[in-house]
Amino acid sequence: MQADDVLGSLDPEQRAVAESVRGPVCVLAGAGTGKTRAITHRIAHAVRTGVVEPGSVLAVTFTTRAAGELRQRLRTLGAPGVQAKTFHAAALRQLTYFWPKVIGGDTPKIIESKIPLLVDACRLVRRAPDSGELRDVAAEIEWAKVSQIGPEEYAAQAAKHRRAPSVEVTELVRLYDAYERLRRERHLLDFETILELTAAILTEHREVAAEVRQRYRYFTVDEYQDVNPLQKLLLDTWLGGRDDLCVVGDPNQTIYSFTGATPHYLTAFPVEHPGAVVVNLVRTYRSTPQVVELANQVIGRAAGPVRARRPALVAQRPDGPKPIMKEYADEPAEAAGVAGRVRELLAAGTPAREIAVLYRINAQSEAYEQAFTAEGIPYLVRGAERFFERPEVRKAVVLLRGAARAADPADPLVPVVRHILHGVGLTPEPPGPGVARERWESLNALAELAQSLEGGGTTLPGFVAELERRAAEQHAPPIEGVTLASLHAAKGLEWDAVFLVGLADGTLPIVYAETPDQLEEERRLLYVGITRAREHLHLSWALSRAPGGRRSRRACRFLTGLTGGADDDRGAERGAGTAKAARPAPATVRCRVCGRSLAAAAEQKLGRCTGCPSHYDEELLESLRAWRRVAAEQAKIPPYVVFTDLTLQAIAERVPASERDLLAIAGVGRVKLERYGAAVLQILREHGTANRMGGGHPRQVP
Question: Could you read off the pLDDT of 269-284 as tens digits, one per residue?
């Protein structure tokens, strides 16, 4: 690849970044504007033109997966050998290397969690440990340590920063002090101490600093708006007064200030580095103009210095559907409404893995897990257990690794992998919703990854090596399920369709966001959520928590007066003193056996209470399932996207005789009627004929 080839595919602003090969450079990159593309092409261009040797480059980011992606892109661009690491990985490597030389002895043991040590600290200060409290205490200690605040300073600094820990400040100081004493006595390192000690060794030992600075001469830092004071201290120590530094970030996506992150280092970069090249990336390739317009309107009302440094995004994609704003009577109704809309997207061909439901706090996920389970919609909760740490995945990888040692290179990859995964629970058809389904989805993701690699001649040992690389970089294969995640966990990700739920004041902005800075961070959180959507965007809120409750909530204040080209489904409520238009009450669905009103989504789909008697022809249901399998295989979609099990059961029970009858069954809809109606009715007719001729069992009607 020639140097010019590295630049040829870039837009004007991205090219300006890539051609600014000497620092200092500050890139203000809006959501979806190709920041990773810009900085990797900049590094590759600098390497290709001889400005820097690849081994002298250190690219720093915040997650193992992001670092892996940087390395992969740089290899593709002809710049292998560039070091791309997280702050902690880079610091730990240096600390481990230099510790025996300048300190002596073994490197201290690293603790993955503060909780076990805090349990011992509780005993030391004679306090009963509480798991919920200890998580909060651990978070406060992390904030204090990255902010370079010791136990003796915590009380004053916590008051200054308006921290509100769940335990008394005096008790937290005692626990913090006891934690640090135990950590030092036991020769242990937490993640913050890794950075502290690395910076200290570089500062106190000139020969160490000289060796590190001789090795690394060219620095790039991604997500610079999330840098905390401790990371900035280490970065400055690495630089040692040099200025070959490129930083990239977006002040509008600063959503981690509660952990000590601050956008100040990004926004003040031109002041700290006079003469720095500053480039704004504003062409967004992710979202449609309709989504971008709403995002610009939300962030355009932001206050303070952050807003002044970010021009509006300019959409590069074709037009798409308008964002939808919808108000619901209560939270269960909101969850059911979202599940219904998700079902429509699935029926229209949107893959489940390209749909996300995002919320402010993790506790909000329960209602959506229940609603999706009732509808037979697969889902996964992001931010829970990492993919490669799941028991079924760990066991599968062990078995695959063992089989790879004796594998015949001529063996086809996919059959071998599926045979091994079958032994740990991968079946041809997925089980019903719940834990078993989640395990099946994990194993199926491994099988589908093997399928995607088979065409390239990958053998079983090569497949295992790919799994180990992905595990090291936390690069999980996609799982076919709708993503449920908090807004914080969604940063850096994107989907075709995004549902932002629970957008009521008190939840977003969260009730304890009181200061102007805290409220502006909540606005940025909404902006991050909006900009996760490529095409479909649905924003919703509920007026009360439970059915029949007092409808006292109001929509998120950041949406007041904004439509952004959105379809607002709240009725006539604009303008002071205007009463909301009354919405028609949803039609009551009654059991066709006992006549009772049906509330549960599963019962409404069946058209009867689950406890009421019902008889259907098992052979008919099996015929419908067999047809569904074929239809799904032909369309290359999961079977539930054709019709869920509940919908097939309802069809078998009610045996509709016409398109109108079929359309009356919940879960069909006009799109599915047009796509599958004729085939289903033909099966029903053929089955009825077979019954009349004695070829089947007669249908029993309750």
Answer: 999 999 899 999 999 9
